[in-house]
Amino acid sequence: MNTTQKSAFDYKKYRAFPIFDMFQRQWPDQQIKQAPRWCSEDLRDGNQALINPLSVEQKTEFFQLLVNIGFKEIVVGFPSASQPDFDFVRLLIEQALIPEDVIISVLTPAREEFIERSFAALKGARQAIVHLYNSTSKIQREQVFKMDRQGIIRLAVKGAEIMQCCADKQSETVWTFEYTPESFTATEPEYALEICNAVGDVWQPTVERPIIFNLPSTVENTTANLYADRIEWFSRHINNRQGIILSVHTHNDRGCAVASAEMALLAGAQRVEGTLLGNGERTGNADLMVMAMNLYSQGIDPELDFSAMNTVVETVSSLNQISLHPRHPYAGELVFSAFSGSHQDAIKKCLNAYQPGESWNVAYLPIDPTDIGRNYQEVVRINSQSGKGGVAYVIEQALGLQLPRWLQSEFRHIVQYQAEKKGCEILPDELVELYKACYLQKDNVYELLNFKIQHNRQDNVQACIVTPEGEKIISGKGDGALAAFINALQVYLGRNIEIVNYDEHAMSSGTDAEAVCYIRLDDNGRLKTGIACDNDIISASMNAVLGCL
Asked: What is the mean pLDDT of the chain?
């Protein structure tokens, strides 16, 4: 960097967000124990953030996905500002595409013609939410609308009155009213409370017919704990609290939208607006999938079903024309994958110990990947950073072979060399082929044709083997058939051969189960490995020895 030239990166132009004085806050001691009311904003907030907004057909497909996942409140658009949105709302109503337990919602600014247009779009709906908003922050009042505090309150109250009048004219619909003091976090807390109370005085909520006050971080401008302080303070002081559903709508400008929404629930919020995979203006909204899966991972029913996660990701990514980051929580391609050797070893051991029906407790995996349609084969992936545990896990999953630790270490070095040579990940099929090439598909110089054993004080073995010189009969004795066979080979070859490592296991259960034998020999100071399978373990061990040679 040219040190003589002043950098444009100037932190001094910014001011710290003012601290909100909150005494005896209670939210840090609370715990989320149940799912909130979820409200999907994909078809409105997410849609208006797209380069190419969704068509009516695409919205219909997206709406069906949201219904299938389990959303009961779905914002379907901004019908007063967009003809496609208006047409989509009419399509849902006229073609009876809205399930009885699902409530659609529309957004409208506090202007008479927009409100009336919104109610026209909802004509004939069984039930609906009409969401009124106007911006309330100091900067918006003074620099955008050129209005004082009372002027902004009058605007909101007038909008609330018009909504009440329109609803009375369409009494066949069960209406729920929602109001948002937009830019809530940049609005003086006492003023946000005052304007909401004024709107509440018009709508007169009851426990049986509550209204929704939605408190957004329209632009995330502070830490999540300060947002929670504001939510708790508002919850304590709003009039007629029993008739209020307190809702939050967080944005991700500081990367904390999910954390802010979760802390808001601790602070008294009952409802969360957001989108799937966090799509929305600028850096996006709270990701409702992540929030729901966070609850799921704590043993709480999220009341949303993401068991077909791949379908959700493919559909949302396709419709929004936005690719998903491979590290996206829960949904990303790599979130359940481990390349690190120590991580792979821990995962392998935990998965081997886990029994279905037990509480999930597997290192590095916060949830069971199979719960959302993934599989364990995707978990352990092999590159030059991988360890012996990961390599062994892939081989076991593919071939049913439980490699002993000494063989894991040996094969891991072969795999690491190949990965470094290749310069990228080694896929499972490639790893299996490498293993077969190293240990199972060698052109053996020696081959066992038959053998017989006599049991006296020691075992005597006579074996017929194929050698470079043709078929040979070899004989030996020892404490056990394998020791006798090794003795026979020592006599025939005229050199010292000793077993350094020996392991075996059955490939399946039953009297005719095939067994696999792993042997490492010290052949005159050189370590050699052989592996063989057979229905007879003695035949397998002899063939493994010959494989070493």
From this structure: 92
